[in-house]
TrEMBL record:
Residues 113-268 form the Rod shape-determining protein MreC beta-barrel core domain. This is Cell shape-determining protein MreC. The keyword Protein transport does not apply. Gene3D superfamilies: Rod shape-determining protein MreC, domain 1, Rod shape-determining protein MreC, domain 2. Pfam families: MreC. Involved in formation and maintenance of cell shape. Keywords: Cell shape, Coiled coil. Belongs to the MreC family. Residues 73-100 form a coiled coil. It comes from Paenibacillus marchantiophytorum.
Length: 273
């Protein structure tokens, strides 16, 4: 049968265009086409299957590359944002030190916060300046916004800072802050002794509140021999009667934030000779 089929095919090729095909030739042509169709469709499906697998591998590789590129882009964007934020903070710090240099003779040593314990009952901040940098205990520490605390312990290369929200009149390790009202000629006097649950500093021993009003800026008076004079602490939030109704109690809203601190200034007061 195979030989017969080949014979008729050969006859068709050799005779060329000789008029209409005979029925045996048509039969052979149809048989051959039908047989080719049986093999062509499965072969095409198999070839298409392997082509799909190849395309899947290409897509997988491209997807992996895109993910790596996207991750790298996200890291670079985050790093750029951090650098821009740091640059903004340092520019503000530079402007702050320039203004302070004109206002007083203090030296402001900028330091970075390396660790911050967020324990609500014992907030401890560690900065990257220590004994080798001339840092001493009880030096005032502030940000560009205002006073935040004092140096409580000094090590060789680092120092611990006690924040104002840890100030407590019943704690011997806590230092009260002698304060007054900025720009007030009468210089009403008071002492910040504690930190209230409302997020405000408690200013006691105020004998004369007539010279104070809500919104006034409270600054250090320099009389406590720990915090130098003229550092902004906060603004008056409310004024009320104190203990036994003899003095007044003033609630002060801190100007500086005690969370998310990045850079601080240690205030160095020149020694009096």
């Amino acid at each position: 049968m195979f030989g017969l089929v080949c014979f008729f095919i050969l006859m068709g090729l050799t005779l060329g265009n000789r008029g209409p095909m005979t029925w045996p030739e048509k039969f052979v042509k149809d048989s051959v086409s039908w047989t080719q169709g049986l093999f062509y469709k499965p072969a095409a499906q198999v070839a298409g299957f392997f082509e799909d697998i190849r395309q899947l591998r290409v897509i997988y590789t491209e997807n992996k590359t895109l993910k790596l590129t996207l991750t790298q882009y996200a890291r670079d964007t985050q790093r750029l944002n951090d650098l821009e934020a740091q640059n903004k903070r340092l520019m503000e710090a530079l402007g702050f030190t320039e203004r302070q240099r004109q206002a007083n003779v203090y030296t402001y040593r900028i330091a970075e916060v390396v660790t911050m314990d967020t324990d609500p009952y014992n907030t401890t901040v560690t900065i990257n300046l220590g004994d080798k940098d001339g840092i001493k205990e009880n030096m005032a520490v502030m940000t560009v916004d205002g006073l935040i605390g004092r140096v409580s312990k000094v090590f060789g290369f680092h120092s611990n800072v006690q924040l104002l929200n840890e100030i407590n009149d019943s704690d011997n390790n806590s230092k009260a802050i002698a304060v007054t009202v900025k720009g007030n000629e009468n210089q009403p006097f008071g002492i910040i002794e504690s930190y209230a649950d409302t997020g405000e500093l408690v200013m006691n021993k105020v004998e004369h509140a007539d010279d104070m009003k809500v919104g006034d800026t409270i600054i250090t008076s320099g009389m406590g021999q720990v915090f130098p004079k003229g550092i902004e602490v906060g603004t008056i939030a409310s004024i009320g009667p104190g203990e036994f109704g003899i003095t007044y109690k003033v609630m002060v809203k801190p100007k500086a934030s005690f969370s998310h601190i990045r850079e601080v200034f240690v205030v160095e007061v020149p020694e009096v000779k």
